[in-house]
Amino acid sequence: MGNIIEVTPSIIGDDYCDCEDTGVDEIGHSSACAHVLKSDQLFQCGISKPSHLTPLTTLGLDSVLHSKVSDGVCDCCDGSDEEDGKCPNSCGVFFRKAVDLGTARLQQALTGYRQSIIAAEEGSKKLESLRGKKENLLKDRANVFDLANYIEFYLKSESRFQTLPYPRMDYKLQAARLKAVSEGKRSLGGRSEMKKTVDNQLQAILDTKCPTSEFTLEEFLATYSADPADPRRRDDQTSRKRGQIDRTLIAPLIEDPAKLGLRIIGIVVFTPVRSVGLLVEIGSEWMWGVEEEEEEVKEGVQEVGGEKEGGVYVEPTAFEIIKASNPWTPIGFLILLGDLHPALDYRRYKATRVPVNAARRGYRKYVMRPINTMWEAPEVLYNETLNYRDNIATEPDTHEFRLLKAAEAKAEQQKKLIEKKITAAKQEAERDYGALITIESECFSNTVDKYTYRICPLKDVRQDATSLGRFTGWVDDSHTSYFIRGGTKCFGVTEVDENGNNVQVQRRGVVNLKCGLGHSIVSVVENSPCIYEVEFQTPLACNEEEVGRAEERLRGFMKIAESRGGIEVEEEKKGWFGGGGGGDGGARKLEDIKKTAEEVLVVAEGLLPKKEDR
Amino acid sequence: MLLLALLVTLLLHTTNAVDQTKFRTCTQTGFCRRHRNKVPSNTYTAALTSSSPDAPYKFLLHPSKGYTSTHPNLSLTVDPLSNGAVRVRVQENNPETSRWESSDILLPAGLSRCASTTHTSDSSSVTISSTCSSSDPPTNTVISLSPFKITVKQGDETLMSINESQLFHFEHKRDKGGVQAATAEPSDTKADHHNGKKIVGYWEDGLARYEDGTTEVKPVEDASSIPKEDEDGFWEEKFQSHHDTKPNGPMSFGVDITFPQKSTRLYGIPEHASSLALHATRPPPSGSASSQAPKYKDPYRLYNLDVFEYDLDVPMSLYGSIPLLISHSVDTGRVSGAFFNNPSEMFIDIWSGEGMGSHWMVETGVMEIFLLVGGSEVSEVYKQYSSLTGTQALPPMFSLGYHQCRWNYKDEKDVYAVHKKFEEHDYPYDVLWLDIEHTDGKRYFTWDKRFFPNPVKMQQTLWEQGRRMVTIVDPHIKRDNNYYVHKEATAKSLYIKNADGKSDFNGWCWPGDSSYLDFTEEKVRKWWAEQFKLDKYVGSTPHLHIWNDMNEMSVFNGPEVTMQKTTTNLQGVEHREWHNIYGMLFQRATSEGLVLRSGGKERPFVLSRSFYAGSQRWGAIWTGDNAARWDHLAVAGPMLLTINTAGLSFIGADVGGFFGNADSQLMVRWMQSGAYQPFFRGHAHHDSARREPWLFGDEALQMLRQSSMERYALLPFWYTIFHTSSITGMPVMRPLWMEYPTDPNCPALDHQWLIGSDLLVCPVVQENAVKVNCYFPGTNQNWYNVRTMQVQPVPASKWVNLDAPLDTIPVFQRSGSIVPKKLRLRRSTEMMRNDPYTLVVAGESATGELYIDDGHSYDFENGEYAKRRFDYVGGKLTNTKLSGNWGANGTCKDWIERIIFMGVSSKPSSVVTSAGQSLEFTYDKNTLVVRKPELGVVDEWTLEIL
């Protein structure tokens, strides 16, 4: 109601809630404001409260919620929450238990803390070795990759070298090989040992003669040398093949009976058509193996079989002209005319050159290409569908080449393997282990309630045969709990995923680490069906803060106990909830318990960094 | 393709909600078909045969012309009762064919006859005049002779009529004679549609579960199998794979009860997941215009059933039945009703034409109708009804607190953990519940020792903090020869028998093969009650109370998930005769067991799912397996109001919804609503996520806790209203029309309600709503917002769109009322016992009552209680004794710590007690708070505001 109340001493603690918004006038006095006070505004039992204790740890010991004041239940151990004489003072038993429990907890935390320190050292060593492993693997990778590259280069050059359809083209391929080898060597850089090995291999192969089918080697070369990333490669490959096939009709036919069969179909059906086309024009590249690059034709400069030099037109010799042209075709005839006198050369005049060239291009494109395609259709189809056979058939069949190919395959394999290893090593080395690094490869089983649980920290948790999920990451930087997800699907329980679909719930949850001795699952709570909260007890969770808390708590208990002068009351407090533990606390004398506690505290102090440092 | 479509439809059916086809409709039910298709006809003529002052008026009903060969003579008795109601009975005139009736429904005292009764007669009618209600004009019951018809009038006002619409039809008991009927034992599975799969069990949806992990696919009914001939369903009926043979043949009856033109609405006949005001289900039989188009195709059905995942807004049966129909007229403010004392299956058609009408179609049993004449006050009708079936038993105080339930708290550790969390969060609750899994293999009265090794210690630990526990005990008993209950029940032959009357019925429920105790038999109830003795129910303590579930009764492999109608009780009476009271009698036996356990000292608490007229005497009821959905939250109000309207007040819906998952918003809204409903329990299915209040985040936790705290603060008020209900029979949770019967806007209102007459609750039942439209009834009636303590401004329309942010729902206190509260937060009701009271006085003159007793025993019956009345008039508040001896010897220390006066126009100069003591006070915004008057609750005093 927000009444403005004049605060006078008389309204404080008079068992009437004057401050109806805050209830402050009755804090520590009565239950009159219990309905407005918050759960951390506590009634102090008739004993002093160490300021550093968190309210809930000492509930009942030195403070209670105001709703418990004078309700007939003895909540304060000294009974100060109820009217006089109603409750026996059971603080002695209570303190004994509390100090004993506190001591046990601190002891446990300390033992765990010691173990965790040792584990942390082991852990950092382990992490170091994991990082070293990664570095070594990275070195290995460089070597493997160099080798693989080198083999690749070598294969390129070697293929070229071995695919000499015409000896007079030697010099070009030779140059290419030398270039490739030097590039390969350059890439090897200073790694001389490896260079030597590869050089030797190379030399051995270079020294070997290759008596294989010229056609198939060339094809391989052609296929291989095209840039694999080039989208035109496929077309290119096809067109080259077509050209090659044009040139060597017989070779493919005898190489592969299947192809032969297919080709026969092609020959029977399409050869007559194609022959007519060829009669009209037989491309010079067909005769001489020189591709006519029509697109490169420049104004006023022509090359016919000869080399162009600095863009100046060089008069071809008659022989060259005859070589270059086939007089039995209309084009050959036109060129022959030009050979008789330059003025007769149709190529000199744009008016003649353009239409003739256009006609040739059009003819090739629109007449010859479809005809060729039809003619080759059976085999192209065959190659397209069974191209692996094509490869086998077209690779050079030398021992060295096979070795080389095997080496290449192995290198590729090794590349993949080492990449995998590196990824794994990287993950391992960069993984956030928290304090669990020393047990990350172990698993622990124990039975809680009716299930047997198996936890492999940072990996997975199983409930009997059911997976509750696999580690997916820490909840936060405190590294005190981590998520598990993707466990066994939950029968009959669905949820809505991010796409709005109804999906079966996969078991998941969090694993909370709890300071304690030994590694075991102490509780599993399933608040929602198939969503778990797993409490995993491990000394590795006993960190400095944990010890600090246990120490503070024990000190608090001791302080209260001291302030009460070791009251010994026989009767155990009735109705106190949340006690337990301590076991024989009732039987032992408070002094003994205090002594033990003090000893443990001394140990704790020695072990923990100085307060100022913390 | 067709198969696929079929499969898809089936799947859709099973995934959405209830499989409606699993339950019979009127057209699938012989007697309902026969009566519903009946054309109005004058079949009987009445003749007065006896008018002795010492006995009921007796008439002979003989068939009218044209019906003599088919219709036997019937006997009609009309008997005005001393409570003001008129009892009408019709049976066969031949005493040899007498029909079975239960002696466990009516209270003998309620049947005492009205002494001052006279009659006059002429050629066409007999008028019986009775004056048993001194203040009212005499009640005239006019029996028109031909056509036979009974009309009840008070003064000149016609209240209701029997057979006005001439739908009366009585099927007499007859011999099978030449009629050929199947002589074979009824066999439920003549055709094996299980495809040879081995059945390992049945589930609550009534479908078989097979060994290979699959579920039975429900066979599709062939609509053409419904016979059409005249005598259809006379001797034998088939529903799905179940056959029902009827050795006694057709014994049904049907009759119309109409309420005259002035009747605005009809209410009652729970339980249906529907609105408070009943919907029309057919046009008027007279052929006159319907003022309300029929909304439902089927009549309202009363046949207690375990309906798995029930649908909303349908007239289908649910878990309980109360054949009480209430009519209310806005014109006259009059409320009257009709109670059918018959526990067999019935269908009720409702129409609205000239006034309201109903057609009752009852499968068997006696036709006994109590015409509840009512009176000038609404409460009259409840006085009459409760004198027949009993008033609401005063529940022990703890049962009005918050109940925390879940299927299931799995072990003692779980129980302790939940309890501790409530403690830590300073969250009040009274009872922690254990569902079926706590038992050893669903053997009730046992504990699964793996999870509950120390049940006594567990209960004591909770009790030390004033908390109690409830365990579930169902009526199906596991057929296990090593189970002592089964052994004893078998040896003593206490089970319901098969149709042969000899062998024990064996059906499937949670434990697998189960038998069902015959609670219609007194000796069985006595035996059952013994089972709750502390030495018999091992592991129980005096602070353990009981929950009765599955008592419709639920039989997973039976027709409509219940028992075949041909089974018999120990007297050889067919199940069809007593189906609807079974659940109540079970709850009664349990309740009597708890009383017996305490040596007759302690009031019991038993929650039951099934109910019947009179269940109010035996404990609390809840609306069964609802769902965590907004529409289920919304329907909870209307359903609870309907059940209250039928005289059963201690009723609630599972907070949060049983099936499915409630998000924090739904949970908060439901808790807010539930805190202002009579029975307040959170419950959830085992496949639902855990729902304890702290699992919804801190913000939601505080809101949930606030709701629970509001409930606890109002407990003195709730308790007082329950006490009043236990005297007067008036419902605790009331629809607005009950307090404002002449307000034309009230009849259909069921989204808001009143607690007693003084608190108006407007819950929020829509997702994301932060406003709620609330109606403020009454003329010149002010309402105070209980939170701001200010008068709510109300426009002429009396509708206000109120703010309702998530942390609150609007609640108002009626100006003119005084509400007693206990504001101090405690962990449970037990701990509030000695807390001081706060009185909240609303308006310039006000009055209110406060009832106090020890909260748990029957000592109040010996006067160990205090009933006080507070009057605030002319600035003086006085406390006077109404009754009770509580505190006569100075033992009552209850005192008042605060009196809040809302609507005080100016700051008073002083507040003094009759003893001349001047009291401290604060005054702000028209609110006067008198601090620490320290006046005794049982003392006579006056406090004056000067």
From TrEMBL, chain A:
What UniProt keywords apply to this chain's record, in alphabetical order? Disulfide bond, Endoplasmic reticulum, Signal
Q: Which GO terms describe its biological process?
A: N-glycan processing
Pull one GO CC term from this UniProt entry: glucosidase II complex
Q: What's this protein's name?
A: Glucosidase 2 subunit beta
- InterPro entries reported for this sequence: Gtb1-like, Man6P_isomerase_rcpt-bd_dom_sf, MRH_dom, PRKCSH, PRKCSH_N
Name the domain of life.
Eukaryota
Domain MRH: start-end pairs: 441-544
- In Pfam terms, one family for this protein is PRKCSH_1
Entry annotated with the keyword Disulfide bond: yes
TrEMBL record, chain B:
An example of a Gene Ontology cellular component annotation for this protein is:
endoplasmic reticulum
Q: What is its main location?
A: endoplasmic reticulum
Which pathway does the database say it acts in?
Glycan metabolism; N-glycan metabolism
Pfam families for the chain:
DUF5110, Gal_mutarotas_2, Glyco_hydro_31_2nd, Glyco_hydro_31_3rd
Q: Which residues form the Glycoside hydrolase family 31 TIM barrel domain?
A: 393-720
Q: Could you mention a single GO BP entry for this protein?
A: carbohydrate metabolic process
Gene3D superfamilies documented for this protein: Glycosidases (3.20.20.80), glycosyl hydrolase (family 31) (2.60.40.1760), Golgi alpha-mannosidase II (2.60.40.1180)
Q: Which residues form the Glycosyl hydrolase family 31 C-terminal domain?
A: 729-819
Occurrences of domain Glycoside hydrolase family 31 N-terminal (ranges): 76-349
Residue intervals of the DUF5110 domain: 837-877
Stretches the record annotates as Disordered:
118-139
Q: Where in the cell is it found?
A: Endoplasmic reticulum
Query: Bias category Low complexity: which stretches?
Result: 118-135
* First and last residue of the signal peptide: 1-17
Q: Which UniProt keywords apply?
A: Endoplasmic reticulum, Glycoprotein, Glycosidase, Hydrolase, Signal
Mention one GO molecular function: alpha-glucosidase activity
* Family statement: Belongs to the glycosyl hydrolase 31 family.
Protein name as it appears in the record? Glucosidase II subunit alpha
Q: Which organism encodes this protein?
A: Triparma laevis f. longispina
